[in-house]
TrEMBL record:
Stretches assigned to the SusD-like N-terminal domain: 51-240
Protein's name according to its UniProt entry: Putative outer membrane starch-binding protein
Species for this entry: Arcticibacter pallidicorallinus
InterPro entries the UniProt entry points to: SusD-like_N, SusD_RagB_dom, TPR-like_helical_dom_sf
Organism lineage string: Bacteria, Pseudomonadati, Bacteroidota, Sphingobacteriia, Sphingobacteriales
Family: Belongs to the SusD family.
Length: 506
């Protein structure tokens, strides 16, 4: 007899099947039998036709636009406020620990993110595992493979964020079967999976991406919202730079392939984040530098703006309470010391406020790269990958400091800065320092800084020292050490799944 009431924790913890987190019997949901799961003969199927598959693919794309908390807002909190780029901003008990290094498994932000990521994996799995079984003569094999490839890129993107945050994670690539009195023993492990190692997670990510390269859409210069071959190449470059056993040769390879796809630095840095004051629209979308972006237009605005500062399309909207991710004095000084006015002006802005948590209320800084409800959120851009290529040329077995310096100089030249001095260009340690600084200034408030410190083993060196240099930071609760490189697994998830093991140090 099929069990009609599945324990709520099962579905909400891992969402191995795409179902509503509710105890309501047979709830109507985006993916219910009523909406998609019955074919013309009345038999239960996941997708009844090609249109249902395309609708589900649209759902994956909509996650980039409609559910920004985990993949953008919270990732910024971790990458910027958990590093030296920003303070927490607000005094909220769930946000401050990212600044003070006191994050615990009970943190609601961490719990939200884990569950949201697992929901995304479930959506991808539903598409990848069922597209081939759709009975529809209008649905060609090539179309099926292209859709499946986009699902694999989406899944790889989600798993990549997860493995960088938590290390060992459950790598789920299939949907769980129905729970019945006869099958509960067989499907238990599907609902309560053990963690895979970090190496195994990266292996699956690499597999998804290399397979997707065969059939994914080509780069479309007019539409950077697609999971294209170029997005797969971008992720592969980042994966090979970050996984436990690095492959710097492949970082260079995929960076070069992106250049062959037509990507380059835009001439004007403000094209990436600027706003057309006359129309209150984004200054530009789908630039030559943007690889993947979530786009927002009239009637479909970007609500994250009012979490981070002002929405310049509605100047006073939601500006009565302290915002997240306040630029740090350390970052402001880094821009000033470098004389980097162009990128500073696009990254940080000052407003008068009614609060003074970190600065005087009459001159309060805010991150500025998401300044309008119609700004795109750029998930991946070419400057990031180009600087990763420079990193590979510095750190790889066949080091080429001169070529790495030329790349860094290209990025600096756009910002109106001088080339690196000869004394830096000829010294590997100095080049690593120069690279890390350049990535900090170029990619500020784009969710990169924490991962840069982790990847280059700079967390303890930078973060344990910044508290003495930055008088505006709240006191450090715990010093950073090797266990700080990973976040805690949410305790609520561990309570529901005894197979999960908490990361060391928590």
């Amino acid at each position: 007899m099929k069990l009609k009431y599945i324990y709520q924790g099962l579905a909400c913890s891992f969402l191995l099947i795409a179902a509503s987190c509710s105890l309501v019997k047979d709830p109507l949901d985006t993916y219910s039998d009523v909406t998609e799961g019955v074919n013309e003969e009345g038999a239960q199927v996941v997708f009844k036709d090609k249109a249902a598959v395309q609708s589900h693919l649209t759902t994956l794309y909509n996650q980039m636009r409609d559910r920004q908390e985990h993949w953008y807002l919270d990732l910024l909190l971790i990458a910027e406020s958990h590093s030296d780029n920003a303070y927490a901003g607000t005094t909220g008990a769930e946000v401050v620990p990212f600044e003070t290094n006191s994050i615990e498994g009970s943190n609601s932000v961490i719990n939200r993110d884990w569950n949201r990521y697992m929901e995304d994996v479930a959506r991808a799995n539903r598409l990848i595992n069922n597209v081939d079984s759709v009975v529809d003569n209008s649905f060609s094999p090539a179309e099926r493979e292209q859709i499946k490839s986009q699902g694999k890129i989406f899944r790889a993107m989600v798993l990549f964020d997860m493995v960088r945050l938590w290390g060992d994670i459950p790598v789920i690539t299939k949907e769980a079967g129905d729970i019945t009195s006869e099958t509960i023993g067989e499907v238990y492990d599907d609902y309560f999976p053990a963690q895979n190692t970090e190496e195994e997670a990266y292996k699956q990510i690499e597999k998804d991406l290399t397979e997707a390269l065969v059939s994914a859409p080509e780069n479309n210069a007019a539409n950077k919202t697609l999971f294209t071959k170029s997005v797969a190449r971008t992720l592969l470059a980042k994966v090979y730079a970050e996984k436990p056993i690095r492959d710097y040769g492949k970082v260079v390879q995929y960076a070069d392939e992106l250049a062959a796809d037509g990507f380059d630095l835009v001439a004007d840095f403000s094209d990436l984040f600027g706003m057309n004051a006359a129309t209150t629209d984004a200054k530009a979308r789908n630039t030559q530098e943007s690889i993947l972006e979530a786009q927002f237009v009239s009637g479909n605005g970007n609500w994250v703006t009012w979490m981070l500062g002002r929405d310049l399309t509605n100047y006073n909207n939601n500006f009565t309470w302290a915002k997240w991710i306040t630029p740090s004095r350390s970052l402001i000084k880094a821009f000033q010391d470098e004389g980097d006015q162009e990128r500073f002006a696009e990254s940080i802005v000052y407003y008068q406020t009614t609060w003074s948590n970190y600065y005087p209320s009459n001159n309060y800084p805010f991150m500025y790269k998401t300044r309008s409800a119609f700004n795109s959120i750029i998930k991946y851009r070419y400057a990031d990958v180009l600087l990763l290529k420079a990193e590979a040329l510095i750190m790889g077995p066949n080091a080429n400091l001169s070529a790495a310096a030329e790349i860094i100089d290209r990025v600096r030249e756009r910002a109106g800065l001088a080339k690196l001095p000869n004394a830096v260009r000829s010294n590997k340690d100095a080049m690593v320092t120069a690279l890390l600084k350049e990535r900090r200034l170029e990619l500020a408030f784009e969710g990169q800084r924490w991962f840069d410190l982790v990847r280059l083993n700079k967390v303890e060196e930078v973060m344990n020292a910044v508290y003495a240099k930055d008088t505006g930071r709240r006191p450090l609760t715990y010093p950073f050490n090797q266990t700080s490189y990973r976040l805690p697994i949410p305790q609520a998830v561990i309570d529901q799944n005894p197979k999960l093991i908490q990361n060391p140090g928590y």
